[in-house]
């Protein structure tokens, strides 16, 4: 891509004025964009970003030595290749979008935010679109798909950096898909990773306590989420209003005469749904919508997942897809891995794998299982290290309130002492002596399954916290570990049919 005619790639008067003083920059080809000096090659633009732990300015010399033609930094640094740009993260998104031909403007871009439910909303949306004949690429916590069906690679971040995000948009567009759905995390929103993205539709699935290791307060966390609706100016907003944050932004957008639609199980809404649980561990749904009333069944026992799917149906309907076709295709919709994934054990016993790693998600999962099954409820869980410590006692308290048996174990302790994590979880528990701690996660899962299967009573075992993840991070090692594989191996050894 050429930077001729005053470097039209970058839309900044100050930057253009600075570049005009450097004749060597008026006409050169850009090979690639990078904010990682290790990846820089001759002819690249290097963004010297300030991070939490490192500052890109410390790697400018390396980028120069590798042939970076243009270097952008928020700091003023002497040198003809270095241009100072305020709010560099914003500009990186704009530059990346232009570099890849502004792909999000040619796509129907649907962004989903919320404490919980982003992945199930994004993936169900893309799969429903695919089944209805409109390919929808997606970027989720689990993986990346160009068409909504095949996953081409695993994800590294919930919301990719600006450069990789725009590159993926371009890949989805080149593949021929007309829709794209992506998760917008609070980190991604605060770090302006969606800069340069044209958002057609924005969805809020939920809001509750999380990520206070990164955000200074719950209010800061909320404002990061709501910046999707306030700062990125979506044409359409879809809000789940069964939480206070949802009610707040819905009212705010309504008062500003924005195109905003509500989803609710509790209140009058544009997409109001109700459900009953049937004997097949499914939900029988009733939906009253802007397009009429519908009855259908969902292949889940989770009302939370049902809410996320209703948000998906609303988004696709409001973007021109036929709701009747969507409803027909939703009955046997395959849900994301590790989201209230139910597995049959012996007799009438069950195991459920869920990604629940926040207080709200853990409470929801335990409530769903309590409402769906008779018998004793087991909860196997832990909390991640080097993350929000305030939620640990909350999760301990929730587990004690809703579960009959708790087995405390490691999640991803990372560099933290696992015993300190357990201690903080137990600080929220009234009767810590009733809780079994087995640090080895495999041992904890197997112990719970064996006890559940060999007791005379009916049992349901929730294995919470990791869901789809296929690794466990302990100290500086990333070890292969998959809750589902542990359970499957147990079942094969027990010859469970």
CATH architecture of the largest domain: 3-Layer(aba) Sandwich
- The CATH superfamily of the largest domain bears the name Mur-like, catalytic domain
Q: Roughly how many Å is the radius of gyration?
A: 24 Å
| Mean pLDDT value | 91
Q: What shape does the CA trace take?
A: globular
Distance between the termini: 58 Å
Alpha plus pi helix count: 16
The domain count comes to: 3
Our estimate of the beta-strand percent is: 15-25%
Major sheet summary line: 11 strands, mixed
Strand elements, count: 23
Do you know the CATH topology of the largest domain?
UDP-N-acetylmuramoyl-L-alanine:D-glutamate ligase
Structural class per helix/strand content? alpha/beta
Major sheet: arrangement of strands? 8-7-6-9-5-10-11-12-13-14-15
CATH class term of the largest domain:
Alpha Beta
Q: What is the helix fraction of residues, given as a range?
A: 25-40%
- Which segments are poorly predicted (pLDDT under 50) over 5 or more consecutive residues? 1-26
Structure notes:
This protein has 497 residues and is α/β, with parallel strands linked by helices. The protein has helices spanning 4-7, 13-20, 60-65, 88-99, 118-131, 162-175, 186-190, 218-230, 244-255, 303-318, 323-330, 359-372, 391-402, 418-426, 441-454, 483-494, and strands at 33-34, 45-48, 70-73, 82-84, 108-113, 136-139, 143-145, 151-154, 179-183, 201-204, 236-240, 260-264, 271-277, 283-289, 292-298, 341-344, 350-354, 376-381, 405-408, 436-437, 459-464, 471-474, 477-480. The strands form four sheets. The protein has an eleven-stranded mixed sheet with strand order 8-7-6-9-5-10-11-12-13-14-15, with helices on both faces. Strand 2, helix 3 and strand 3 form a beta-alpha-beta unit. Helix 12 (359-372) packs parallel to helix 13.
């Amino acid at each position: 891509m050429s930077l001729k005619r005053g470097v039209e790639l970058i839309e900044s008067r100050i930057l253009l004025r600075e570049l005009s003083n450097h004749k060597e920059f008026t006409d050169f080809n850009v090979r690639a964009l990078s904010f990682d000096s290790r990846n820089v090659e001759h002819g690249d633009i290097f963004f010297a970003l300030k991070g939490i732990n490192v500052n890109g300015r410390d790697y400018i010399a390396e980028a120069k030595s590798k042939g970076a033609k243009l270097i952008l930094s928020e700091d003023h640094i002497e040198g003809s290749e270095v241009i100072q740009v305020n709010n560099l993260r914003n500009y990186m998104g704009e530059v990346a979008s232009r570099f890849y031909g502004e792909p999000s403007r040619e796509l129907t871009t649907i962004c989903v935010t919320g404490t919980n439910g982003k992945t199930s909303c994004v993936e169900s949306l893309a799969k429903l679109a695919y089944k209805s004949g409109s390919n929808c690429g997606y970027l989720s916590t689990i993986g990346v798909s160009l068409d909504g069906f095949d996953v081409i690679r695993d994800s590294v971040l919930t919301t990719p950096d600006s450069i990789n995000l725009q590159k993926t948009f371009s890949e989805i567009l080149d593949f021929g898909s007309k829709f794209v759905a992506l998760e917008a995390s609070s980190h991604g929103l605060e770090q302006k990773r969606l800069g340069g993205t044209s958002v057609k539709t924005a969805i809020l699935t939920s809001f509750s306590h999380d990520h206070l290791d990164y955000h200074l307060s719950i209010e800061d966390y909320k404002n990061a989420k709501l910046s999707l609706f306030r700062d990125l100016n979506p044409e359409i907003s879809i809000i789940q209003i069964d939480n206070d944050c949802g009610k707040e932004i819905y009212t705010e957008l309504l008062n500003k005469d924005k195109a905003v639609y509500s989803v609710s199980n509790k209140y009058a809404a544009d997409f109001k749904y109700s459900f009953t649980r049937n004997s097949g561990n499914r939900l029988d749904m009733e939906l009253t919508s802007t397009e009429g009333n519908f009855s259908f069944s969902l292949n889940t026992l989770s009302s939370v997942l049902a809410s996320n799917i209703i948000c998906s149906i609303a988004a696709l309907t409001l973007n021109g897809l036929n709701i009747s076709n969507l409803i027909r295709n939703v009955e046997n919709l395959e849900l994301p891995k590790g989201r209230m994934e139910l597995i049959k054990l012996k007799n009438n016993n069950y195991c459920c794998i869920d990604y629940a790693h926040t207080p709200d998600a853990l409470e929801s999962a335990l409530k769903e299982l309590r409402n769906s099954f008779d018998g004793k409820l087991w909860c196997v869980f832990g909390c991640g290290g080097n993350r929000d410590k305030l939620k640990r006692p909350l999760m301990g308290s929730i587990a004690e309130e809703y579960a009959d048996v708790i087995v405390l174990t490691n999640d991803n302790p990372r560099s933290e002492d696992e015993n300190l994590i357990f201690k903080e979880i137990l600080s929220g528990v009234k009767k810590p002596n009733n809780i079994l701690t087995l640090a080895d996660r495999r041992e904890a899962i197997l112990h719970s399954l064996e006890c559940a299967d060999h007791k005379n009573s009916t049992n349901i075992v929730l294995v919470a916290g990791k869901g789809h993840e296929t690794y466990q991070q302990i100290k500086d090692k990333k070890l292969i570990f998959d809750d589902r594989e542990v359970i499957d191996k147990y079942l094969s050894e027990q010859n469970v049919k």
